[in-house]
Structure formats: C-alpha cells, structure tokens
Amino acid sequence: MKPQLDLRLTQKMVMTPQLQQAINLLMLNRLDLAQEMQEAVLENPVLEIVEGEDEGDWTPGDEGEAPAQTMDDRMGREDPEAGEDDRMVDPLSNWDYSVDESLDNEAFQREERTLRESDAGEFSYEKVLSQPTTLADHLEWQLSFTDLSPEEREAASYLVGNIDEDGYLALEGEGLPSDLFPGCDMDRILRTIQTLDPPGVGARTLKECLQIQARLLGQEEALPGRILDRAFDEFLAMDVKAMARKTRATPEEVGTALGFLRALEPKPGRPYYRESPSIVVPDLRFYEDDNGEMRVAISEQGLPRLRIQPSYRAMLREAPKKDELRDYLEEKMRAAQWFLKSIEQRKKTILRVGESLLVHQADFFREGPRGLRPLVLRTIAQELGLHESTISRVTNQKYAETPFGIVELKSFFSGGVPSVGGGSHSATSVRERIRLMVRSESPESPLTDQEIMKKLEEAGIVIARRTIAKYRAELDIPPVSQRKRSLRETGALPTS
C-alpha cells in the first residue's frame, strides 16, 4: 500500500477556558455562586459590586424580557415574533463577544425589579433541608433514566456502592465482579456510569478520570487527550519538552493544552465532600398570581450585582494601541464580560427549564407530589435544544419554592410505572400514594405489601410487590411486622 495524503473536513467542539467556566458556574448552587461572584470581584479589578443592590429580589426574567410566563401561556401558544435572538442557547455554545462591542453594551447592568405581591403573601427565602444529597444518591437518580435492564441496574448499583468519596471505583482485587452478575456486561455497565455527572466519576485511576473528562468535552483526539494517552508520566512531572516531543506538538501548543488539563477535576466526588447546607436559597419560585395562574420566576436574592466599572471602560478607550496597559485592560475586560455572560446564561437556562417544568408537571402544582408525571431529562433537553448533561447540571442541587414546599429541581424527574389503561404514572407519585396509604392505615390492621399492591391495581397502577417493598424502604416505612410490633410496644395494640 502506497502512502497517500487524505484530507478530511470534520467538526469538533473546542472547549475553551471561557466555556468551561460557563459550565462550572451552571453546576454551582446559589450559595457557592454568591461566593464565586465575590471572588471574581477580588481577582478582576474591572468588576465591581453595585453598592446598595447586593440583595436581589424575585424577578420574572432578565433585562428586556417579558414577565414570567404562565402555565397557560406555555401550553397554549408560541410567540410568533420570537426570533433567533430570543432563543436560549446551550452553555456549551460558542459565544462571540468582543471587547469593543462590550464597551457600549449595558446588558449586564441589572436593574432592580420587584415582583408584585401574590396571593401567597410574604415569602421566606431561606428554607431548611432535611437531607443532603450524596454522590451515591445523585448517581442512582441518573441511573434510573438509563436504558439498563433491571438486572443491569442491580449490577450498576453494586458498582456505585463501591465508588469512594473522591468518585473513584474502589474494588478489591483486579477486574470487575462478573461472577456476581452472570449475563451482565460489566464493562458496558461501568462505561454507562462513567457517562454520568459529575464528569470523571467511576474511574479507577487518575489517568482514566482525566481521560473520561477529556472525552466528554470532545478533547480525546485533540492534544489534551494525546498528552494523557502518550505522555501521562511527563504530564505529572510537568515536563513540557518531553510532552511536546511525545505528542509531536510545539511547547506553546502544549502550554495551551495544559491550561485545559489543569481545569479538569482530579476528584469528581469533591462537591459531595461536605454536607449540603442546611439553609438554601431557591433559584426558582413557582407561585399563583392574582388571577389564579401558575407562574415561575427566578430569584437573585442574596447575589451581589456586578458590573464593569465605567472608569475602566473610559481608560480602555483612551489607552494607546499596542500598549501594555491596553493589552492588560483588554484581557481583564474580556474575562469580566465572559464571567457576566456566563452568570446571565446560567440564570436564563435555569428559568427556561423552570418554564418547561411548569408545563410538563402541571398536575404537581395543583395536586402536590401525587400529581407528578413520568419525565426524563431527554424530554426537556430536546424541547429546549440543550444537551442532557446540561439539564442534569441545571437540576442538581438547585431548588425551587412551590405551593407544596421547597423541592430540588431534579425531583421533578422520575421514571414511569405502567398504568392499566396504557400510559404510566411517575415513580414519585406512586411513592406518595404508598406513603398516604400507610399514614391512613388502620392501627389494628396495618397494610401488607400485597394489600398495597391490590389497592394500587384498583387505581389502575400495575406494580410488582417487590417494587412496593423497595419504595416503602426508600420512604423509611418499616414492613408490616415491625409496624405491628411498634404499636404493641407503645401500648396501642393489645399483646394477646
């Protein structure tokens, strides 16, 4: 075979530090975001906090946006005049935002707005959570939306149970326990886990952890991926010349790739080290307006209001071209604009997801948890033109105030339980039915799982007894024998 030139035209996503910053901001909860904004002001002199406006309010939207949409607005019509500029974009989209354009662009200077009082009256922003989300909880929740069979789900849960607090798979011995789950492709199951959030989870080594993240960010075949594959030891030693030699790149190119690699997370489980704060500030509020319509609004309460200092804008205009001061100001101005753009994009993306949830889970806002319908991340992602991983980041550790209490956004997503007449019920609504049944059961004759199954069948819900036992355990409801014993011990039932 003779050597020949082969020209190909391909498209690949380039993960710039700015886009990576946007993704990281999207993942933060409200408290961490406020801290990140404070740190950005300290690190970038062109940014400043607008004094006297550090406490935001519930706002229906952004500058120039219409008020928060109602449920009927979302379900009944689309805006015929909505153009390309009105469509939200994925945080992974590549924004083209120049410094010269930003000088006259005041889009990031937020104006104070106040949401008029609703029938709900005064709203308490700080809410107490009963349970923190663990890394295992987050992974199990995502597994419920995969295409794994029940047997494969069991095997996946086993692997998740062996993931340590850093996010690494820690199994005794070598290889995966295929003998424990005959008929299951353990390698495929592990690969599925490694596609979940947080990126890099389920790796067995640091090298594999970073390679997973590079692959998810489209850099597996690019220079960052080649460094990990061909020059990992040199990467650990930070030997730039050796990395350049092994990857056939220039030292300058290696330096750029190292900027990407340093931004990767060597310990994916790090965000779950500490317990989630017992006090949270919701990102969204679902409320009923004066006309009885359900609406969704986004909160800026507790967040500092940032802007670019006007004095630095003037300084940049007056700085001579090809001057060190101008270069410095342009660099800081770009960083500031990207940071502000990322904050705005985070806010808009969360609001868009909230508007979709208002439509898809309309029954929840009328009936409470039992009204939840089956909903998967893919449905919202396809509707909004976003990636599933983006929806996962938006809903994880983000909270909403609803007429039925404070809930994590990801609780609106649930797998389905078949219905007798076709269709399905959400697993969350079925759990709520079970909880209500047990709460209202006769003290003298607590319900068995079989009796609960029959009651659900009468309501048109097809469910196995073992699934009821599983849901009951998730609700911390003991089996019927223990419930009877507890009643006897308290004297509520006779001992004979």
TrEMBL record:
UniProt domain RNA polymerase sigma factor 54 DNA-binding: residue ranges: 327-485
Keywords attached to this entry: DNA-binding, DNA-directed RNA polymerase, Nucleotidyltransferase, Sigma factor, Transcription, Transcription regulation, Transferase
GO molecular function, one term: sigma factor activity
Positions of the UniProt region annotated as Disordered: 53-92
Acidic residues bias: start-end ranges: 53-65
Cross-referenced PANTHER family: RNA POLYMERASE SIGMA-54 FACTOR
NCBIfam families noted in UniProt: rpoN_sigma
Family: Belongs to the sigma-54 factor family.
Protein name: RNA polymerase, sigma 54 subunit, RpoN
Organism of origin: Leptospirillum ferrodiazotrophum
